[in-house]
Each structure stands twice: as C-alpha cells, then as structure tokens.
Amino acid sequence: MTGRSLALLALAGLLAADPAYSAAPAESVCVQCHGGQPGKLGAPVKEWAGSVHQRHGISCHDCHGGDPSDYANAMSPERGFLGAPDYAQVPEFCGRCHVGVLADYRQSAHGRKVAQGGAQCVVCHGNHAVREASLELINERDCSRCHEYGRAAEIRQALAETDARLLAMSGEFERLQRLGGSVDALKGKLFDLRNRFHRVFHSVEVEKVRNETGKVQAELALMQEQVDAYDRQAARRKLWGGVAAGLLVLLGVVLLQVRHTYAEEERGD
Fold first, then answer.
1. Are 201 and 159 in contact (CB under 8 A)?
2. pLDDT number for residue 26
3. Distance from C-alpha of 97 to C-alpha of 263, rounded to nearest angstrom
4. CA nearest 179: which of 219, 225, 224, 238?
5. Mapping DSSP to helix (H, G, I), strand (E, B) and coil, where does residue 222 land?
6. Residues contacting residue 216 through CB under 8 Å, at least 6 positions apart
7. What does pTM read for this prediction?
8. Which stretches of the chain score pLDDT less than 50?
9. What is the pLDDT, as a whole number, of residue 15?
10. What is the pLDDT of residue 96?
11. How far is residue 125 from each of residues 136, 224, 254, measured CA to CA in Å?
12. How far apart (Å, rounded) are the C-alpha atoms in residues 191 and 224?
C-alpha cells in the first residue's frame, strides 16, 4: 500500500470519527413511506420538516408510537402504535413529554374548557409543523380566532420585558464565556428559569403572569449582580495587569540606563 493510500485511509477515519462529517441518522420508515405520498398522507412529513420537533430529533414514532424500523409493523398496536388522539386528549398526549406545561395548562381557562372545545396544544402550536413557545404565538390574528384579543394582549405585554431580559442575559453569559469566565452553572440556571417562564405562557391568566414574571425578574436581577461582580473583578485584573506591565517597562528602562551608564564609565577608564 502506498503512502498516499495510507494517508487517504487515515483521513477517512478522521472524518468518520468527526460528528460534523458522520452520516445523518437514518429516517424512520414512517418518514420514508409518507414522505413520498401525495395529499394528506404526505402532508404531515412536509409540515414536520423544519418544525421544532424535527430540529430536536423528535420524529413520528416519538409521539405516535409504533416501530420506526419495520414497514410491516410500523403501525402495529403490539409495537406500541397509538395513532392520533381525540381533540380533548391532545393535552395528555403532548403532556407525556411536556409535563410541567400540562400542569399549568390544566389549570388555565383553556384547559378547563377543553372538553367543550377550548384551545389545546395544536390550536396554538400546530400539530406537525410544531412551533416553539414564544411571544410570537400571542398575536391578534391567531388569538382572535376564538375570542377577543384584549386579555391576550395584556399577557403579551406583561411577558415582553422579561422575555427581552432573558435574551439579554443569555448574551451576557456568552460574552463572559468568550472572556474565559466559568459560566456553565449560570447558563444552567438561566435555562431552567427560561423554561419556568415559558410555562407561564400557558396559564392565560393576567395576574398569574404578572406575579410569575416578577419572580423571574427578581432572579434575573441576582444573575445580573453576578455578571457585574465578574466584570468588576475582570476590570481589577486588567488594571493590575496594566500596572504590572508598566512596572516591567519601567524596570527595563532603568536597566538599560544602568547598562548605558556602566558602558560610559568603562570607556572613560
């Protein structure tokens, strides 16, 4: 085997070991089958592509059950296939993963009326083209399909400032990390806080939203104090680093002067 062949084999091994070059996960048989079908049978795959579920690796079988590796048994109840839930059962269906959100939803005006046609998960988030929880979901066009927008607008206004502060805090942690700060623990706390905050979206009660956002903002204020403390410490290190550098420069000048003086004295002798 030539040196070039060995080099190519080594390169292939390195690329195979690198996640960035490794093969993408195999599609489930659900996606393979429905993806090529026309009309409503193929629509779920097209809607799912690009959804928050698809971006996080959640596929058909994660929600609907079944065997994603076997065409013949993909929809077999013996393999855990569940199919699509009835309208009022959708919250329980989604709540198998979104446990905390389900608890808040059940207590909300939407959840208390779901048996009578109250809004459930897919009404706001979509069924296959699932949209993640964000302020963009609270808008006059969508909310007005079922009721007046007034209360929803109040909730969005109460949430907006906190949502912006969460985003800003995430940016602060990224900045500190680039500076070499150890912020993994803080980023974990922020992740938990953001999830808790997003649960509030589902309460659809103005006073509860205001109370909970107040608590979240209080915790954000404590995080900001930690960021400020890190910045002050970094500024002190920078100051003392500058002082140390200045002293070294001064010492160098003094040594050069001493050397120059010593050289002149030697020439005089």
1. yes
2. 59
3. 81
4. 238
5. helix
6. 162, 166, 193, 196, 197, 200
7. 0.65
8. 1, 4, 6-25
9. 41
10. 94
11. 11, 32, 72
12. 15
Q: Is the CB of residue 186 less than 8 Å from the CB of residue 223?
A: yes
Rounded Cα distance, 122 and 128, in Å: 9
Task: Please name the amino acid found at residue 35.
Answer: G
Helix, strand or coil, per DSSP, at residue 150: helix
Q: What is the DSSP letter of 108?
A: S
Residue 254, pLDDT score: 81
Q: What secondary structure letter does DSSP report for 147? A: S
d(CA 141, CA 132): 18
Give every CB contact of residue 142 below 8 A, 6+ residues apart in sequence.
124
Question: 199 in helix, strand or coil?
Answer: helix
| b/e code 65-78 from CB counts within 10 Å (16+ = b) | bbbbeeeeebbeee
Measured CA to CA, the distance from residue 37 to residue 141 in angstroms comes to: 32
- Report the first-to-last Cα separation within the chain, whole angstroms: 74
Residue carrying the six token digits 């996606």: 31
CA dihedral sign, ordered 176, 180, 186, 190: positive
Take residue 225 and report the two structure tokens written for it: 């104090």
